[in-house]
Amino acid sequence: MAAAGLRFDGRVVLVTGAGGGLGRAYALAFAERGASVVVNDLGGDFKGYGKSSSAADKVVDEIRAKGGKAVPNYDSVEDGEKLVKTALEAFGRIDIVINNAGILRDRSFVRISDEDWDIIHRIHLRGSFLVTRAAWNHMKNQKFGRIIMTSSAAGIYGNFGQANYSAAKLGLLGLANTIAIEGRKYNIHCNTIAPTAGSRLTQTVMPQDLVDAFKPEYVAPLVVWLCHESCAENGSLFEVGAGWIGKLRWERSLGAIVRGKNQPMTPEAVRDKWEKVCDFDNASKPRTIQESISVLSDALSQIESQGNVSMNATRSVVSSSVDTTGIVGRELATNVYTYTHLEPILYALGVGMSTKDPDHLKFLFEGNEEFCCLPSFGVIPAQTSMFDGVPSLPGLNIDLAKMLHGEQYLELYKPLPTSGQLTSVSTVADILDKGSGAVLLIDVNTYCGKELVCYNQFSLFFVGAGGFGGKRTSEKAKLTANPPKRPPDAVISDVTTPDQAALYRLSGDWNPLHLDPSFAALGGFKKPILHGLCTFGFAARNVLKQFADNDVNRFKAIKVRFAKPVYPGQTLQTEMWKEGNRIHFQTKVKETGEVAIAGGYVDIVPALAKPAQEPLMTEGLQSNLVFEEIGRRVKEMGNELVKKVNAIFQWDITKDGKTAMQWTIDLKNGSGAVYQGPARSSADTTFTLSDEDFMDVVQQKINPQKAFFSGKLKVKGNIMLSQKLEMILKYYAKL
Ligand code: NAI
After folding, report:
1. pLDDT band at residue 401, thresholds of 50, 70 and 90?
2. Cβ distance 24 to 59 under 8 Å?
3. Contact predicate 704/674, CB 8 Å
4. What string of DSSP letters covers 445-486?
5. Distance from the CA of 21 to the center of ligand 1, in angstroms?
6. Average pLDDT for the chain
7. Domain spanning 12-248 has what CATH number?
8. pLDDT at residue number 730
């Protein structure tokens, strides 16, 4: 009886309700392909009354007669453990469970008795749960399992007189959906079928010729395939019958936003948008709960950031299922940005730098020795190139007036030049379909000559351009990161001026939304809003100062999501958390507490380790001999000297301007000591002078005061104590 192709040798299959109808067909099909089969059947009538062993025995005999392996089980599926035990006892394992057993108690809704309701749920839904649960851990441990749930068109679509059955049958789909998610990582797959076949269940409602035509054998091959180890299908629903198979999925209309910012949501607004709520043109097909929910967060951010504009925005319809393959990867524009020191200075002023902060001078004054360009200036040459290309994307309804700057990523490969020529090349990295809008990911590489200096990724949200049948996520997207759940390590506040946007725009972002009140009103804002990239610049320079000592060499990358608008004049509060080389941050509007930049981070390069100190000179210094001699004499004196002086003196002896040796004369601890190196406990007074000057002092060619006033001797710490030292040098350093 061997069938070639998809084989199940060594696999153990449990089919519930396999004494007749569909179950029997499954049992025979699996056995034919080498599986060992547990043929379960309670053997009652189609309403669930009575029991008998004959139904299961008959099918077992049939399989064995053909040379297959099978054992019977006569328990109800409500005794799930017992069914699985039969499989383990007879064949030592369980690989596949086909939940198929079922009965009918059809009644019009109001006539359904408690018992009719309960028994349908107990056999179909609870029975499938109990049998599957009994098999689960075996499947999990062996990292293989295939499960089938049997639903019904009556559940999917409803059917007169089958309310109890419909409810239980669609309950099985919910059960399967979650099992599929939980089982995935153990290679346990669970799929659901809604079969149509002639059987004793259907012969009461189907004409005989259809009962004969819709053979169970036209359903079994789907079940066999779904349960094969080579089939990756998981969590899916199929309708099957008569030799035809179709897959089902959820479809969701694009829907409509029915409330405006700070406005109550009313039933009248729902009524007025009803047509749109129910319009399946360009509908989306959410596959996961995450995809399902993402439309809600999109809606929230649209409502919040757009005021009531999205209420009025009519969705611009695009032809369904636009093929974006020709667009993704396309080069948009190449743009040359030529600048002098003026632009980086203007930009620095635009993001709130001020001469009030002495640290800022190197960003504001081209004559400063360390004059440099703020790292976040890297977005400026890139944005011109990007805007040049956007409007020309065919097929997608890209309307610049409905564009929101969603996210920004910038990575620097070297500090930006303070003037010169930068060439930016922009390409479409990906296009995402968020249902309510489209997200365009634009990558911009900026070169100085042939050298790549920085890379930007702009994430632009186009309201109303979604629903073209595209994917929702992209592996090319640079993602934001949530800050740690603890109070920030640092917070810096900046008050923006009423003219902040007017100043920032001079760096090249001319959108009137940031300056013109009537234009801003059109967008639903009470007044012009600050550029998101301006707030971004404030945050970037705060992180640079707080965690990278304003060293532009250490600024590697930054990512932000623009969550809420900021109005010029408001106070920005940048909260920062250090996690290794990543500085998480978010920027709040202090006056409202709202988060304007969310999920931000800056990656910094750790500070270069201090250059290893040149080895100190242990030879060739005349002073070494003097200190050694002092050491000997201190030893001789015992603690007498310690009592008298009670101080620690450190000596930094220089040679050719560099520290060449350190000595410590400790006349404080124990009976005193003289040793090489810095003071082990802190020095009271530290002297710095050259080897030659030290010798002059010791030989009294110059007295210490004179050496001090002429700058040859530097003293740190307690100067008065140095008088005591003079005495020591006089008496103990005589060579
Ligand atoms: P069927 O009545 O021929 O087979 C069901 C089998 O389950 C019977 O042999 C019965 O003895 C057994 N059974 C009933 N209660 C049991 C229990 N508590 N424990 C163990 N076995 C039990 O009916 P058919 O048509 O083969 O149905 C198979 C499954 O397919 C059922 O779940 C049914 O609801 C479902 N289905 C069938 C459709 C069809 O067109 N035949 C349509 C939609 C769903």
Report:
1. low
2. yes
3. no
4. EEEETTEEEEEEEEEEEEET---SS--S--TTSPPP-PPPSS
5. 7
6. 88
7. 3.40.50.720
8. 65
**Is the CB–ligand 1 distance for residue 100 below 6 Å?**
yes
Question: Which residues are the active-site residues?
Answer: 165
| 673 φ/ψ angles, rounded to the nearest 5 degrees | -160, 155
Dihedral of CA 482/486/492/495: which sign?
positive
Find the mean pLDDT for residues 95-124. 97
In degrees and rounded to multiples of 5, residue 685 shows phi and psi of -140, 135
Distance 130 CA to ligand 1 centre (A): 17
Q: Among the listed ranges 306-320, 456-470, 561-575, 679-693, which one has the minimum average pLDDT value?
A: 306-320
Looking at residues 91-102, what average pLDDT do you find?
98
Cβ of 48 closer than 6 Å to ligand 1, yes or no, is yes
Comparing CA positions, the residue from 550, 589, 177, 231 lying closest to residue 364 is 550
CA separation for the pair 40, 77 (Å, rounded): 8
Query: Domain locations in the chain?
Result: 12-248, 267-316, 320-479, 480-608, 623-732
CATH of domain 623-732: 3.30.1050.10
Kindly state if the Cβ of 22 falls inside 6 Å of ligand 1. Answer: yes
Lowest mean pLDDT among 349-353, 365-369, 387-391, 407-411: 387-391
Domain 480-608 sits in CATH 3.40.30.10 = no
Which residues does 572 contact at the CB level (< 8 Å), separation at least 6? Answer: 493, 494, 495, 496, 535, 538, 539, 566, 587, 588, 589, 590, 596
Instruction: Give the fold, CATH level 3, of 320-479.
Output: Thiol Ester Dehydrase; Chain A (3.10.129)
- Of the listed ranges 375-379, 419-423, 453-457, 471-475, the least confidently predicted one is 471-475
Structure-token pair, residue 350: 């635009």
Atom of ligand 1 minimally distant from the CA of 46: 2
Q: What is the rounded average pLDDT of the residues 516-544? A: 91
Question: Can 320-479 and 480-608 be said to share one CATH topology?
Answer: yes
pLDDT in tens, 193-231: 999 999 998 887 788 888 899 999 999 999 999 999 999
- Predicted TM-score (pTM) of the model is 0.51
- The answer to whether residues 254 and 313 touch, using CB atoms and an 8 Å cutoff, is no
* Residue 316: per-residue pLDDT: 32
Extended beta strands in 74-221, E state: 96-99, 145-150, 188-196
Q: How many CA atoms lie within 13 A of 384 on its CB side?
A: 17
Is the distance from the beta carbon of residue 27 to the nearest atom of ligand 1 less than 6 Å?
no
